[in-house]
Amino acid sequence: MFEKLLAFVMVLTRISAFFLVLPVFGWKSIPVRIKVALTVLMALFFSVITPLAIEPKSISVLEAILLIANEATYGLALGLIAALIFTAVKLSGRLIERQMGFAMAQIMDPLTGERAQPLGSLLEMIFIIVFLSANGHHFFLLIISRSYETFPAGSVPTILVLADGVIKAGSTMFLLGLRLAAPMLAAFLLLMVVLAVLARMVPEMNILFISLPLRVGLGLLMAAIFLPLINAFVGEFAEWMGKLLPL
């Protein structure tokens, strides 16, 4: 009985920690009861099909606590890596908003229950819809399955491996965010050059007054052009996840 209970608790700990910080599943807009029910059902499933990497009969209470802590650390690292790469779309939206003059504009994000900026939240919602329509939630379940194939319950990668994955995911987030926003930043740079030329040619023109609607209009136009690129980013998201996750 103790062996089965320990196996279930270890599997439940990794899955709970993974979904705690995971995008979509970890949002406050999803009821807690649904989160708990999904987590317990998945833990029951994986505890049956995945063997333990240790012999439960020879484990003391202190060793069991340490193993559970290791499972929590591994699950948090997996979820954090996924969340960081997932945030690249919102980061690109925030970069565009600053160029549009929306740095101070804030709304209440209905997904997370936190304050956010409008364009970044809109791009993130569109990415989520495309991601889920492409069965992206199945990809998260595949991550859990592969984690137990590579590191069964009771065997966890070293802290250095987990920390390396999280650090690389953070740098990848900034890289992908800048790459997604690069065409729009180039368009805003061209607009600034045009406005600078106009300021030299027509000194009496109020460039600040004219630039505000132009920046907003250009930002909305480029955002509309940017939307088809989100579909291609879904496949790239899965590719980066496969590279960075310690599986």
Structural category: mainly alpha
Query: How do the strands of the widest beta sheet line up side by side?
Result: 1-2
Terminal CA distance: 30 Å
Total strand segments: 2
What spatial form do the alpha-carbon principal axes imply? elongated
Helix content: over 70%
Biggest sheet details: 2 strands, antiparallel
The ordered H/E elements are HHHHEEHHHH
User: How many structural domains can be distinguished in the coordinates?
Assistant: 1
Question: Any overview of this molecule?
Answer:
With 247 residues, this protein is mainly α. It has one domain. 77% of the residues lie in helices and 2% in strands. The protein has eight helices and two strands. The chain has helices at 2-21, 32-49, 61-86, 88-100, 118-133, 136-150, 159-201, 207-244, and strands at 107-108, 115-116. It has a two-stranded antiparallel sheet. A hairpin with a 6-residue loop joins strand 1 (107-108) and strand 2 (115-116). Helix 1 crosses helix 2 and helix 4 packs antiparallel against helix 5 (118-133). The longest helix has 43 residues, at 159-201. The model has no long low-confidence stretch (mean pLDDT 80).
Keywords:
247 residues, mainly alpha
List the topology elements.
Blueprint lengths: L1 H20 L10 H18 L11 H26 L1 H13 L6 E2 L6 E2 L1 H16 L2 H15 L8 H43 L5 H38 L3
Antiparallel strand pairs: 1-2
Summarize the structure.
The chain has helices at 2-21, 32-49, 61-86, 88-100, 118-133, 136-150, 159-201, 207-244; strands at 107-108, 115-116.
